[in-house]
Design goal:
Elements (H helix, E strand, L loop, with lengths): L1 H51 L8 H4 L2 H8 L6 H4 L3 H11 L3 H21 L3 H18 L5 H20 L7 H8 L4 H6 L1
């Protein structure tokens, strides 16, 4: 009987030791996921700012009508996108395809920025939002290739934040993706986009 009590005590002590050893690791992992979630949330501000704020607000009536986008493309050097594009092919696409359909492209750009912002802020379909953040920021870099270091640097930051959202599934911490994945654990599509 004494041997049995002694073995239970040593098992309990061993369990306490193991819990004590792994607790800092678990706390560190939680804080890393929290930092990635905060990066996701803070990067959403940039998308909302582009959609609604400043002189280049995508939801401004002038931009949505297509006139603002056409003006930005055809503006004289060095400001016009036709002059700052990364190469001649991009410039030809802007003047030959985007300008004739400027209103359609303006709406696509505005809704894209809004969609990425909502996805990253709420942690809803975060991997999909991260993918579109990468695509949209890379497109901006191609269009404004010679637009200056601040434009390029800002878009690099958005691409990196998009990769974090895409690869780390950061919407599963402080986000609606966590609720969706726990509610529908067998959905493969949900695991891919969230």
């Amino acid at each position: 009987m004494a041997t049995r009590v002694q073995s239970q005590r040593s098992a309990t002590a061993s369990t306490r030791y193991e819990l004590g050893r792994t607790a800092p690791l678990a706390r560190g992992a939680l804080s890393a996921t929290a930092v990635l979630a905060l990066l996701r949330i803070f990067s959403s501000y940039s998308w909302f700012s582009g959609a609604f704020g400043g002189k280049d607000a995508k939801f401004a009536p002038d931009f949505l009508s297509g006139a603002g986008l056409t003006q930005r493309i055809n503006a004289p050097a060095p400001m016009g996108f036709a002059h700052t594009a990364a190469n001649h092919t991009v410039a030809s696409f802007l003047t030959g395809t985007v300008v004739p359909h400027a209103s359609l492209f303006a709406w696509l750009i505005a809704l894209g920025e809004l969609g990425v912002g909502v996805s990253l802020l709420l942690g809803l379909f975060t991997r999909l939002g991260g993918f579109f953040a990468i695509v949209q920021a890379a497109t901006y870099m191609l269009v404004a290739g010679g637009g200056g270091a601040d434009t390029i640097g800002h878009n690099y930051m958005l691409i990196l934040a998009g990769f974090v959202a895409l690869l780390a599934a950061s919407g599963r911490t402080f986000g609606l993706d966590q609720l969706l994945v726990s509610r529908f654990p067998d959905s493969r599509l949900l695991r891919v986009v969230s």
